[in-house]
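Structure ticket #2291
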Amino acid sequence: MAFSGLALALLLLSLVSRATPCTEQDKSSLLQFLALLSRDGGLAVLWQNSTTDCCSWEGISCNGEGAAVEVVLAKRGLEGHVSPALGDLTGLLRLNLSHNSLSGGLPLDHLMSSSRIVVIDVSFNRLQGELFELQSSVTHRWSLQLQVLNISSNMFTGEFPSGTWKSMKNLVALNASYNSFSGQVPASFCLASASFAMLDLSYNKFTGNIPPKLGSCSMIAVLELGYNRLNGTIPDELFNATSLEHLSLRYDGLHGTLDSAHVAKLNNLITLDLGENHFTGKIPDSIGQLKRLEELHLDSNNMSGELPSALGSCSNLITIDLKSNYFSGELSKVNFSTLQNLEHLDIKGNDFIGMVPESIYLCTKLTALRLADNKFYGLDLSNNDFTGMIPQDISQLKALNLLNLSFNRFYGQIPQALSGLTDLEVLDLSNNLLNGTIPDELNNLHFLSTFNVSNNDLEGSVPTEGQLSTFPDSSFDGNPKLCGSILIHHCNSVEAAPESNFTTKDRSEKRYCFVQKQKLGFMAFFSLVTLVPLLLLSLASPASSCTEQEKGSLLQFLAGLSQDNGLAASWRSGSNCCKWEGITCGGNGNGAVTEISLALRGLEGRLSPFLGNLTSLQHLNLSYNSFSGDLPSELLSSSSITVLDVSFNHLSRVLQHQQKHNSSVPLQVLNISSNHFTGEFSSILWEKKSDLVALNASNNSFHGWMPSSFCVSSLSFAVLDLCHNQFRGNIPAGLGKCSALKVLRAGHNNLNGTLPDELFNASSLEHLSFEENSLHGILDGARIINLRNLSVLNLEGNNFVGRIPESVGHLKRLEQLRLGDNSMSGELPSTLSNCTKLIAVDLKHNYFSGELTRVNFSTLTNLKTLDLLYNHFTGVIPESIYSCSNLTALRLSSNKLHGQLSPRIGNLKSLNFLSIVSNNIVNITNSLHILKNLRNLTFLFIGHNFMHEFMPQDEMIDGFQNLEVLSISGCLLSGPIPYWLSNLRNLEMLFLEGNRLSGTIPAWINRLESLFYLNISNNTLTREIPAALMDMQMLKTGKTTTHVDPRMFQLTVYFGRSLQYRISNGFPKVLNLSCNLLTGKIPQEIGKLKSLSGLMLSFNMLSGEIPQQIGNLTNLQALDLSNNNLIGRIPSVLNHMHFLAEFNIANNDLEGPIPTGGQFSTFPNSSFEGNPKLCGIIVNRHCRSRSAEPPLSSTEERDGLVAFMIAFGVFFCVGLLYDLLVMPKYCCYSPFTGVFKKILDILRS
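Resolution: structure written out below.
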């Protein structure tokens, strides 16, 4: 009865509404914002069907006076312009419009006119234009409160303002990455704001030096300036910024050495990324003083010398990337056994010598190891779990004296290529699964003194002559099918000795090489022996000598380089330029240069127009360097060049064409992708290129209309890739005349209109991709039948409607069908089963309906991915799907399917990912017994089914040994948390929220040593929080999981101009126990869970004070203790939690002053309401004694402000964790317990 009374009281409290509706001015401003949207994602309907009080509108939060303080409309599919009227919301604190498709400029002047605004986030949109200096009418205001500005991942251009930041005295974090800003990096950030802590300007076009004044930013923790066009050295002053934790200057034009005394100052560094620059010299010994260092990237520089032994002192290192340098000496100088957290070690392409040290094999977490292209003479990989075949390319390791691969699981035949290791003295292949015969060629290993192939499955005769006849019979033991004179078992007929092929079982086991946790992967070994075959080709020397004219043109090219990465020294070593590195001359003896191949050489500077004087030059490949400036018209208009590849550089400006009367240009292949070209893509450029076959201009900033003149000039034109640009308008109908066109890619642009009818006349098309545009219309069945050669059709992320036509069944070569994220409807055509080559079918987020049984999936034996998420399919899951034995990912979530899972799902032996969430599937006990036999299953999401059933307690549910993520949420299942979950030792994320589970939280929970995300909220669990929860390994330590890939869950991530997938921290570490019946005090031991990102304990019956030890959770981003019975004061130590972005203690019995300063000044008053004894400015209740307030030093206030910097800057810059903190309010009507709810919605899909 006591509990019922409490529940009733809480219910009454939840019904209490604010007394003050929104003001008419705020309502008008919001409606003006809505009016400027060309696509509102349903927002207008939601707002208009709601009350007239705009404080109740979706995405809007108000304070007690009816003023809008938050506008949170992220990921709403909004299109249109950002209305200046938002600046009229005078109470606005936070504005979040991220992850939409807003365009036009950013009215920063108007938005800043509200002097109270603290956070502006418009990241991941299509905003463009320049970011102008703030007007004096704004900057002269007495105070600008802005702390966080996130404009990343847009299309802004022009010089970056410098004066604007001088007026922002509270600025903490600025993220302007992934734009096209130019000019110098400003230095005025911390001159105005002593609390400035985060600056990300990466992936832009900044030039010049790094400003020394950034070193005076005493609070700066994150500095990312990579992927720009900077030059010079790292200024000495920058090393005075001793608070730096993340320093990334990757892929700029920097040079110089790393000064030992300077490096020692940055003892807070966690990430140091200086890769792909031109640094020289050694790694200083002082690197060992960076005790917090986790990521060290110095790859692709010109550094040299031995590795310092002090590197072994950096015991937190997770990644070491030193590839493509000139490091030398023996690796044994470093004691790798102290690096117990090391997961990635890449030293490929250096000059290391000696044996690979045994201490590396003590790094039990190592998952990636690359040692290729060094001078190691011994390789010992014995006693691991390597699998797969021994690669043929192992013969390239010519210097090996020792090769030990024993006690692994290698299978297949001993490669004959081993005979190429002529210096080999020791070869041990024992205790594997090798079969076939012993190659006679091994007798050519004349220095071999130790040989062992025992305990395999070898057969046939042992070679009787040469070196192999000298070894004892113990070298061949455990191979009963072997025979020969040195063995007891003699051969009846040597000639008849069979050479076995793979058995069926062998073939079935030949898969991606993936080994158990805490073992090295075979991919590491494969990388070790994979060498560039072009290295061998470069040894060939031409018979002719180059002419002086050719030599002069090449030297002119060399003179235009600001960084040649040793090329000058290489060329000056000989007078015959035909023998120079990267240069090939013709074989007719005239000394004419026919090919220049200098890709991946670290070159920097301008492209010389003198290369156009090489009149016999046919192939020019300068890709993957750092060239800047424009592309000389002499190269585009060359009378000899047929292949021109300058992709992956920093080239910019508008493409220029040099008219040469009426002469035709022989260019056949042009690759200018992944640069910074701008301007319109003029059709005049292609008029004289009558031989053009392939053009790749993707990943640039071209705009205007797509040209259509390619095949007017060239009848052989076959490949056009214009994706990831800014093209607008309609798809040109003239492309339909390209009779030889095979590949047409123009995704991720601003195209609109329909697919022109004429396009379907391009009947040679094999790859058609227009994803992520604004196209509309239907797929015409009569026309699509013309594209019989299609292998890829990708139209996802548009506005197509209508059905999939029956004629799709005529596309017999179709391998990928991607129509997701449109508005298509109707039943699936039965003829889809005629597309027997299909590998991937993605139809998610549409309005398809009907029964799936219309399609006979059993004919699609090549199908690997089937994604039907968010449609309206009905009926049962068709049995024919279970015949798709190659399926690895199956997602049927959020449909209207019913019935039970069939035992035939066990046929899907390769299935790795299964989601059937939000259907009407029944019988969970039977389902789990069936699914447990899918041994490769890693991700399983079955929530929002099995309504009101009993949670199976059967200990016979003994499978799922590889399961890493399990979600059985929202089923209203009853019963206790089952014991069989304790056997899932690889489990990393467990979701059981939204059920009716009862009893206590089991003590065995801490046996799940990999578990880092636990959500058991919204159940009826009782008693105290168990001590076992305080002993969860992944929540106590800084260990990170490398197994759960967020890409599997369709999280919003950004693919940059170089198609790079970037993610800051993967999934957060979370403990969510909210909305249960837990009692007692919050354990003081909770301070041990130091790596927690989210702690939710709301809506329980917890009592006592908030423990001071919560202040130890320095990584916490979200803390919700609301709706309990907590008493006492708010601990002042909470202001030291520098990642805290969301905080809620509403509806308790707390008292005393609310801490001031830091992030506490940014939390809304709703975070504290329902505590009448609390006082402070934020709740409009003055404390009787100011002296009673917890004192905060200026240092503490600055530390507090860092919270917003980290939370909104580092973790949310790629759109992963930020979304988790701005979701609608769900759990138990809490004003905050929707935090991290987004991750559940994603996983439940």
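Closing remark: The mean pLDDT is 82.
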